[in-house]
Prior knowledge:
The radius of gyration is 23 Å and the shape is elongated. The strands form 3 sheets. It has a 6-stranded parallel sheet, sandwiched between helices. A 4-stranded parallel sheet has the order 1-2-3-4, with helices on both faces. A two-stranded antiparallel ribbon has the order 11-12. Helix content is 46%, strand content 11%. By secondary structure, it is of the alpha/beta class. The protein folds into 2 domains: 210 residues, Glycogen Phosphorylase B (Rossmann fold, 3-Layer(aba) Sandwich); 166 residues, 3-Layer(aba) Sandwich (Rossmann fold).
Amino acid sequence: xxxxxxxxxxxxxxxxxxxxxxxxxxxxxxxxxxxxxxxxxxxxxxxxxxxxxxxxxxxxxxxxxxxxxxxxxxxxxxxxxxxxxxxxxxxxxxxxxxxxxxxxxxxxxxxxxxxxxxxxxxxxxxxxxxxxxxxxxxxxxxxxxxxxxxxxxxxxxxxxxxxxxxxxxxxxxxxxxxxxxxxxxxxxxxxxxxxxxxxxxxxxxxxxxxxxxxxxxxxxxxxxxxxxxxxxxxxxxxxxxxxxxxxxxxxxxxxxxxxxxxxxxxxxxxxxxxxxxxxxxxxxxxxxxxxxxxxxxxxxxxxxxxxxxxxxxxxxxxxxxxxxxxxxxxxxxxxxxxxxxxxxxxxxxxxxxxxxxxxxxxxxxxxxxxxxxxxxxxxxxxxxxxxxxxxxxxxxxx
Length: 398
């Protein structure tokens, strides 16, 4: 999301970033802190704004919150109710800041907060749905009806949403996540090929199949190093598996890598290929379209991936190598082909970069988002704000 927000700012938009529940250290996007308001879920400011809004317009507040009680389970309803105070605070912030539009990423409780803030403030809103948040189905159909538009990052995600009840939803769009495509790249080759896997260490990423594939290659005498960039709950388990397979001398677990450092690997030509061994865990638990692959392709780094989730929408024929999920032998053969066939490596790198430049360029993606925001703003002629927020009817900025 960071490149997207940065590009919106570069295109002349004023952007205020508000995390739903800020916590933990910031690994990516330090530059966005200057345009962010990190307010805890139940900070004094949040509770004060929520109390004032409720006291000033209890009936309107209750009407805005009513859809939350239609949540599909008591557990989901409780999660949604937990963000109501911050939704009231966000409505106040949006009005005082003069927001034309509220856009949120994730269709879960973050979208609940944005939807309620929009209902209370009258500022139009929209959301980007990714993958797990579609599966969660937290008032998804209600949110789609309420939003000016709903963006899905893959055709697969849109299909999934339709299957769980959003209907035809004419306001649904497929707009991929984009990356900043470098103006020029230069491939260099070090003394030893490096295969990089940039992904959090979670079951859906299929790291164990990648390690098994790498073990096959090592037994065949294929030279190279496997770098695993990312952290997660499976790190100890995967490091243990690497040791059991005898991969200690050829595999490095890099831990969490700052985004700029990751791109530097590509800029310096340190990486010969990027691989993701993602799997489908069932019930919609699979990849969207991995940005890690899009970024590598933008630098003309050839990729190997599995046909899980929306990955096949990105890695189309001629732009990379796609293999079946959970198949270490097929994965090993695909990696071997890229490491030992220089012509294929160069060809797939070039065509992958051209594909990303056409379809996933952050400039194009941000431009389409801005058009959607402006269209939503034009449709709002006027709206009545709660007295606690602004004390009367106002016109949105143009």
